Structures are given as C-alpha cells and as structure tokens.
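Journal club side-thread
Mid-discussion, someone asked how the predicted structure for our own chain would compare to the paper's figures. Pasting it here so we can look after the session.
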Amino acid sequence: MPSPSAATLTIDLDALAHNFGVLRAHAGDAEMAPVVKSDGYGLGAGPIARRLWAEGARGFFVARLSEGEALRAALGPDHPATIYVLDGLPTGAGGRLAAARLTPVLTSLPQVAEAQALAAQAGGLKIGLHVDTGMNRQGITPDEAYALAQAPDRLARLDVGLIMSHLGSATDPADPRSAAQLAKFEPIRALFPEARASLAASAGIFLGPAYRFDMVRPGVSLYGGGPEERPDPRLKAVATLDAPILDIRNIAAGEMIGYGSKTLVERPTRAAIVAAGYSDGVIRMAKGQARAWFAGAPRPVLIVTMDLIAIDIGNAPARPGDRVELMGPNAQIDDLAAAAGTVAHECLVRMSARAERVYLGAV
C-alpha cells in the first residue's frame, strides 16, 4: 500500500523479463549479458540481476569495482555469474577483484601491465580487453591491440576471454559511424580468435547480425528505453513513478506559478499539486514539455520543484489522494527524457531513494 503522501517507484520484474525476451529474440545466437551498472540503472541491481538470471543470463556488466562487489554479494553463491567490470583494473584493486571473483575489462596498456603482474602472483587471470574503435572514451587503440597480439609475452598468464568495443551512434541506424566502427572491430577480433567478441549494446542489437558477434550487452532497453531513443511498442515500461495529489488550485489567467515569475498561466487553469519533485528524480527541465498521465489522458507538467509538481488537469474529476503517473506505461520514459533534453538512462538513474520502492513479479 503506497504512502498517502509519497511518490512510489514500482519496478515490474515481469516487464523486465518481457524486454529481455524481446532483445534475446533479436540477438540470434549471441549470449545476452545484461548491463546492471549504476545499481541496475537505478532500479536495484540485486533484484534485477536475480530475475535476469532466472531468465537465462549468466554474465553481467557493471562499471565500478564497488558495483561488482555489491552485485556478487546480492547474487550470492547460488548465482555464480561472470561479472565484468568495465573500468578494468584500478591500481591496487587486484585483491578486491579476486575476492569478489570479478573479471576486469582492461582499458589501457598500464592496466594490462598491472594485470600481468597480478597474474604472475596468482598463476593466471581471466580478463576482457576493451578496444576503442572510434568512440574515444575508453579502451586501448587498435594499434595497441595489434602490438599486444604480436607480442604474446605481454599477455603472459592472462586469459583473454572477451574482446569488446562500444558503438557511439547505434541509436541512429542511418549513421555511418556504426559501420565504420564495425569495420575497425572485425580485424581486431580476428587477432584474438579464442576470445568471445562483443560490440553491441541495446541499440546495436537491432542493427543486424553483423553487429552481434558472440555476446551482446543490453542495457537501457531492458528497462524500457527504446533503442532509438523514442518509445518502442515492443518494449514494456519496467519503472513506474506515481505520486498523490496534495491539493487542487484554480489559477487565474495572467498569474504566475512557481519560482522566478517565469511560468505564466495564459488561461484559467485548474492545477493539481503532486507530491513529487526533483528530490524524487523527476528532472526539473522537463517542466513545460513533459506530460503526466491522469484520469485517462496526458496532462501538461507546468512546474517541477524540489518536492512538488504542478500539472494542468483541466476539468478532470480529481481530489487529494488521487495518484498521478509521472513515468510509466502511459507517461513513457523516452518522452520524459525528450522533454527534459536528455536520455532515458539519466531519467532512470536519477530516481531517488525517497520514492518508496515496490517490486512486482518474482525475483
């Protein structure tokens, strides 16, 4: 039962499983290794990963060492997943990686050297290797990859189980950058024939079989974000944020609402004041463009403040305590992201701990 004065974030694990199935159907024979970084995109990495394990996932990606440690603890001994750490091997982190049985995805030559030293002490180390094919964010260069492949002593005692890169423009299928990155990745993959290869995240899965290789890394689309950064009818909303109406106010034409005398009400407006705000994760810049869902229709979001949101409810029957959907099946996350000038990823990870969390479906 939701609190009468608090926002509620409902996480539908059955919808998560549905999205996993949609992505798996498009991934062909590639392994599905979900990305659960940033605490499962803000929705709880433990429950998310346990449900995805039940759906068949056996490998997961996190960003930080601490995320990997937390995920290992949340999965426990009954879920012996491979957990890849995208930040690789931070200096001095070898003991913690070993204790949590994490697989670092090395991103630089100094990390390769550190991993080799660690492997010499431990008698071996399983790693992934990230190669930058044009995103210019993380990864060794193609020239460095060729040099490593031609000097096997530099990888002595390192078991390169994964060779990966990351697409920078996959959300736009017409962007030629993806094809250019694929062309760089294919010969690098051939340098490490024993390693599994991975290039595609959520959007890349839909670019076609050439991009899928041995493993795909679905992320935002697992959680309901469309692969082209717009609502996709194949996917279900996993996260629903709703909150109660605290008050209903009649505002005269020409009056201001909220801070700064910047939001002018141009006509007589009946506004519901909703118990949520940017403290609960609703991005402030969504005001004026976003639509909440109430009484069977989308309603304009007038202002977003720290604890309160005002929406224009017109003549809809309403009373304090009625709940408004701010994000979910009817107020879709990609639309909210577009209204705020951002992406679905940010809308998800900004969901705060103040919103009461409810999980639906088996964990």
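Post-session note: The mean pLDDT is 95.
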